[in-house]
Amino acid sequence: MIELLPDYPYFYETHFHTAESSRCGKSAAADMVDACKAAGYTGIFVTDHHWGGNTRTDRNLPWEEWVDGFTAGYYAAKKRGDEIGLDVFFGWESGFMGTEFLVYGLSPEWMKAHPEIRTAARPGWPEVEDPLTPEKQYALIHAAGGMVIHAHPYREEPYIPEIRLYPDFVDGVEAINATHSNPMSKSHTSPEYNKRAWAYAKAHDLPVTAGSDIHSVNLFGGGMAFRRRLEGPQDYIRAVLSGEDYVLTDGADWFDQQGNRVG
């Protein structure tokens, strides 16, 4: 069980990948839901890799069929969550030439109605005539009432050819990605990535979020904890954008929204 702070008993994983829908996923969604429930999470946001990222679903499928394949991980997680009492919410991780964003507050039905989101570009792909740039993505997601968070903005890996920052085209920054700093992590490890993300958020007065970026049942225990239970994705968006009181963790230490250790 994760040791929660007494004043913040409602705990959420905000960055979560399944084997059904992310090529890098290692565990089935239902098994991961069981692990999250046992660890003490109240809920999770399934954020599998989308068209411009490491998706498992065949990009040659017609768009609506592709969305059905892409959302398989979410629906499997939701089914199991409903059975055992874990809240499961929908989101995704979009990509643009290696830069990645977490998108919250929209639905699979919205996705089917907006095939233009499949034009996101990725290193090594043929050029797209009119790609979904981060600027266009922000406008599209905002028009529908969603939220865009810049995921791990300072991570350095071969699949990220350069660090790109879009402070005017995101709603917040993933200041804690547990893979960077949790002692259990075996990839992307560098606490400096999180430190730079905190500084970036502060410099641009952007809200901060935290998640594990988990891919298997071997949980890190990262995420965000609130004083109250969230009602759904739109409630999460309101909480983040309004500056509601919440704390963040990489599974090892707890922080307030200014980056100070608490607890």
Q: Your description of this structure?
A:
The chain contains 8 helices and 11 strands. It is α/β, with parallel strands linked by helices. It has a single domain (10-262), classed as TIM Barrel, CATH 3.20.20. It has an 11-stranded mixed β-sheet. A hairpin with a 4-residue loop joins strand 9 and strand 10 (254-255). Helix 1 packs across helix 3. The longest helix is centred in the N-terminal third of the chain and has 13 residues, at 72-84. It is globular and about 50 Å long. The mean pLDDT is 95.
Reading off the top of the CATH hierarchy, the class is best stated as Alpha Beta
| Class from secondary-structure proportions | alpha/beta
CATH superfamily: Metal-dependent hydrolases
Low-confidence stretches: none
Helix count from the secondary structure assignment: 8
**Strand residues, percent:** 15-25%
User: What is the domain tally?
Assistant: 1
Tags for this model:
263 residues; TIM Barrel; alpha/beta; 8 helices; 11 strands; single chain
Quick summary:
28% of the residues lie in helices and 19% in strands. The protein has 263 residues and is an alpha/beta fold. The protein has an 11-stranded mixed beta sheet.
Helices and strands, with pairings:
Layout: E1 10-13, H1 29-39, E2 43-46, H2 63-70, H3 72-84, E3 87-96, E4 99-104, H4 108-112, H5 134-143, E5 147-150, E6 172-177, H6 178-181, H7 191-203, E7 208-211, E8 223-226, H8 233-242, E9 246-249, E10 254-255, E11 261-262
Parallel strand pairs: 1-2, 2-3, 5-6, 6-7
Antiparallel strand pairs: 1-8, 3-4, 4-5, 8-9, 9-10, 10-11
Helix pairs in contact: 1-3
